[in-house]
Amino acid sequence: MMNKIAICGAGWSGLLLAKKLQDTHEVTVFEQRKTLDATCAWGTPTETLKELCNEHHLNIADYLLWQSRK
What we know:
Elements: E1 4-8, H1 12-21, E2 26-30, H2 46-55
Parallel strand pairs: 1-2
């Protein structure tokens, strides 16, 4: 039986949780912003995100919305 799960916030944690649950549950993600121009609240370095994505078998390109030049 698939449970219905609502996740509030399409940040790194919300999207990772949705990805992990999508095969076994019906997941809906809610985000208050109308555009996808938000950056990570913690300013996580790209290399750290790459490591996390690799660890969880995710493609960073699916989650990286903006990358600083500095």
